[in-house]
UniProtKB/TrEMBL annotation, chain A:
Residues that span the membrane, as ranges: 20-41, 53-78
Originating species: Pedobacter xixiisoli
Protein name: Uncharacterized protein
InterPro entries referenced in this protein's UniProt entry, alphabetically: DUF485 (IPR007436)
Pfam families per record: DUF485
Origin superkingdom: Bacteria
UniProtKB/TrEMBL annotation, chain B:
TM ranges: 6-27, 48-72, 78-99, 119-137, 157-176, 183-201, 384-406, 418-440, 460-493, 513-532, 538-562, 569-590, 610-628
Entry-linked InterPro entries: Na/Glc_symporter_sf (IPR038377), Na/solute_symporter (IPR001734), Sodium:Solute_Symporter (IPR050277)
GO biological process terms held by the UniProt record: plasma membrane acetate transport
Subcellular localization: Cell membrane
Species name: Pedobacter xixiisoli
Entry protein name: Cation/acetate symporter
Primary subcellular site in the record, as a coarse category: membrane
Family: Belongs to the sodium:solute symporter (SSF) (TC 2.A.21) family.
Superkingdom of source: Bacteria
Species classification: Bacteria, Pseudomonadati, Bacteroidota, Sphingobacteriia, Sphingobacteriales
Gene3D superfamilies associated with the record: Sodium/glucose cotransporter (1.20.1730.10)
Protein's membrane topology: Multi-pass membrane protein
A GO molecular function held by the record: acetate transmembrane transporter activity
Keyword terms: Cell membrane, Membrane, Symport, Transmembrane, Transmembrane helix, Transport
Length: 100, 637
């Protein structure tokens, strides 16, 4: 990460996080909208058995719940990484020891 | 339903409520400045806050409402779980961190951080109040439902009880105490749901639920003599009358001086009369349950499987099952649901609950409440989309959820809290599918209100489990109501009186005004709780979500993601969001039914307003921000 001052750095982290958040949001939105669209336009497909005797409605529904949790963990992982990277870079710049 | 008072339940209940009250008084004594009243002083640990988030969110709607709706309408109840959780994605990815960077105590402060506009203060505090009130209604309805089997008291007593306890909690303490109450209750709720699900799976599925101690009522089936479509005689019974309502035929028979109603069904050309559950309201005020007075106890809990199929073979019972096996077996089997019909018989008002066999395939698909199959009308499809939209967009815009972002120190902690909350809530929602279905097939349902599905199921597994779950559910209601009342008293005292009216209250006075506001909102909530008795609480919460999604979310999103958003745009969007969603709700079929005008005569058939009101509010914030851009704002602020 090529950054010079603390304030700019923080802004960059904020922007990185916000960009990641928006992207992940759209990924989830598409999955969620897919479920709703399936309900409205191809309802019959939801009754197909897909896994261990469970129909698509149940699998998709539970899947959406589990997927939300997984996406939350991914988001937190990257946000923490961005913040830590920035902090480390900040420290390094301050101590004036190494280039990044 | 006819309920006995349970002493064990009563004892546990009192201990639990005492614990909650004690805790809140303890924390209430410790801190008393306004920052700790409204936002717990920003000093709560993220993990505690995360579970408290879950506690806030897993309100009566989740525990009582979703389980209840799954029990009577199958997968359609689960739609609420899916939508309620998806809403957190919006909260986490788009709102949580930027909001934390903006705000102080309330939703209004955050919205107004960049503008300092009085119009925003006013409109945002009104929207906070309205959303809180709409969210309070289902909590109060749920509270009333809870005390009926628990204490054997009428619905309105429960509503008043909750109202009074919460007013006491809030007026004495504030946000710090509600956070710990929510933490405790959120954690317990999840643990108990795991235990309950364990019981359900261990118990398996059976054609005669309830076992030996508590046998399930054997519903009478009679073979009538029929000419054309008229029943002419039934052996051993005197034929009294026959009525057709909504295509269903009901026959009144008499035996030993007792009037009973039967439902005429036909299968493979053979006609059968099936016993129904009835409540007859006589003109003289007398109420008969299945033709007899209340003390004869002839009214039953219902909901069972009429056929269980495992690996293509019909069986009596399955024994213990795994989670997938549980779901797939119900899908292959046949569920008997009890549907409601109202008829007038002379001067008597008759409420009939008749058995309807539903294939497991249908039960495990959406469509029993929100009709979305190929034969469904456009209105009902739109209704489904509208509901899913409201649930998705509503969470992030609920004032009592937003307020929790401020109770931790850093944005990083707010994020971690939110993710922990999502995991906890997600896990809980998956369990609601099992608990709801378990309640639907284990003969525990109260036909008069679906809200008690989960606690009544627990009752079938033992008095202690029932009492603990009821107590936790009651605490759930207490905690949520407390959080909501803090949010709305904040809107009145802090936003409206302090900032909008520019009263410049001292810290002490701010807390005092907040407490007075809390009492007023509490009393109002009690009255509404009584008025909406009998409606599924998840359904009611759907409205609160729709209003929140329409009134608050467009304003928040534009503020955070569009630099040109102006204060006029924000306040106009809030007003349009509230007015349009309220207008649609107040003219909806459910409200028409409440007014006594008949659901079918309502002005439109849309039950959930979000599909119209949300885009309208988005359009408003955009258009008004362009028409009245930012620079003009300074003049009126």
């Amino acid at each position: 990460m090529h950054v010079n001052s603390t304030t700019e750095e923080k802004e960059i982290v904020t922007r990185q996080k916000s960009k990641l958040g928006v992207r992940l949001f759209f990924v989830y939105l598409i999955c969620y909208a897919g479920f709703v669209a399936l309900g409205v336009f191809n309802y019959e497909l939801l009754s197909t058995t897909v896994f261990s005797g469970l129909n698509l409605a149940v699998v998709y529904g539970i899947g959406l719940i589990v997927f939300a949790v997984i996406m939350g963990i991914i988001y937190n992982y990257y946000c923490t990484k961005y913040e830590d990277d920035a902090e480390r870079a900040d420290k390094l710049t301050k101590e004036d020891t190494n280039d990044l | 339903m006819i309920y006995d008072i349970s002493i064990t339940a009563l004892i546990f209940f009192c201990i639990f409520v005492g614990l909650v009250l004690g805790l809140s008084f303890y924390f209430g004594r410790k801190k008393s400045d306004s920052s700790s009243y409204y936002a717990a002083g920003g000093q709560i640990h993220w993990a505690v806050n995360g579970i408290a988030f879950a506690g806030d969110y897993l309100s009566a709607a989740s525990f009582l409402g979703i389980c209840g709706m799954i029990a009577i309408a199958g997968f359609d109840g689960f739609l609420y779980a899916i939508g309620f959780l998806a809403g957190w994605i919006v909260a986490l990815f788009l709102i949580a961190e930027p909001f934390k960077r903006l705000g102080k105590y309330t939703f209004t402060d955050a919205l107004n951080a960049k503008f300092n506009s009085r119009a925003i203060t006013l409109s945002a505090s009104i929207s906070t109040l309205i959303i809180s009130v709409f969210y309070l209604i289902p909590q109060m309805v749920g509270a009333g439902d809870l005390v009926m089997p628990l204490l054997g008291l009428p619905h309105w007593v429960g509503v008043i009880l909750v109202g009074a306890i919460v007013i006491a909690i809030v007026a004495s303490a504030g946000m710090a105490s509600t956070t710990y109450v929510q933490f405790l209750k959120g954690g317990l709720l999840i643990v108990l749901s795991v235990i309950l699900t364990g019981y359900i799976l261990k118990n398996g599925l059976s054609l005669s639920p309830g076992g030996k101690e508590n046998p399930y009522h054997k519903f009478i089936e009679l073979t009538p003599k029929i000419e054309g479509d008229k029943v002419t005689a039934v052996t051993n019974w005197n034929l009294e009358s026959q009525q057709v309502v909504g295509g269903k035929t009901f026959v009144k028979l008499n035996q030993n001086g007792v009037d009973r109603w039967f439902y005429l069904t036909e299968k493979d050309g053979k006609q059968t009369l099936k016993e129904t559950l009835t409540i007859v309201q006589k003109a003289n005020g007398e109420k008969l349950y299945n033709g007899e007075t209340k003390d004869k106890r002839k009214f039953y809990q219902v909901g069972h499987l009429s056929k269980i199929i495992v690996n293509g073979k019909e069986v009596e019972k399955t024994g213990a099952v795994g989670p997938f096996e549980f779901l797939s077996t119900i899908k292959e089997s046949e569920v008997v649901r009890f549907l409601h019909a109202k008829i007038t018989d002379g001067t008597d008002q008759v409420s009939l609950y008749y058995p309807e066999i539903t294939s497991g395939t249908k039960f495990m698909l959406p469509g029993l409440k929100y009709k979305i199959g190929t034969d469904a009308s456009l209105w009902s499809k739109l209704d489904f989309v509208s509901l899913m939209l409201a649930l998705f967009l509503g969470t992030a815009a609920l004032p009592h959820i937003l307020i929790r972002y401020y109770t931790v120190k850093t944005p990083r902690d707010a994020r971690k809290s939110t993710i922990l909350a999502i995991a906890a809530i997600g896990g809980f929602y998956i369990l609601t599918l099992f608990i709801g279905l378990g309640a639907g097939v284990n003969g525990v349902m109260d036909v008069e209100s679906s809200n008690m599905a989960a606690p009544l199921l627990a009752k079938a597994f033992g008095a202690v489990l029932f009492s603990i779950i009821s107590a936790v559910a009651f605490a759930t209601v207490l905690g949520t109501v407390a959080g909501l009342i803090v949010a709305s008293s904040g809107a009145i005292a802090h936003d409206f009186i302090d900032i909008y009216l520019k009263k410049n209250l001292s810290d002490d006075n701010k807390v005092k005004v907040g407490k007075i506001a809390a009492v007023i909102v509490g009393v109002f909530a009690i009255l509404l709780g009584m008025a909406f008795k009998g409606i599924n609480v998840s359904f009611l919460v759907g409205w609160a979500f729709a209003i929140a999604a329409s009134a608050n979310l467009p304003a928040i999103l534009f503020l955070l993601f569009w630099k040109r958003t102006s204060s006029t745009g924000i306040s106009a969007s809030i007003v349009v969001g509230i007015v349009s969603s309220l207008a649609i709700i107040l003219t909806s079929p459910t409200m028409w039914d409440k007014y006594g005008l008949g659901a079918e005569n309502s002005m439109h058939q849309l039950e959930n307003p979000a599909l119209i009101s949300f885009p309208l509010a988005v359009l408003t914030v955009y258009v008004f921000s362009i028409l009245y851009p930012k620079k003009d704002v300074k003049v009126d602020s």
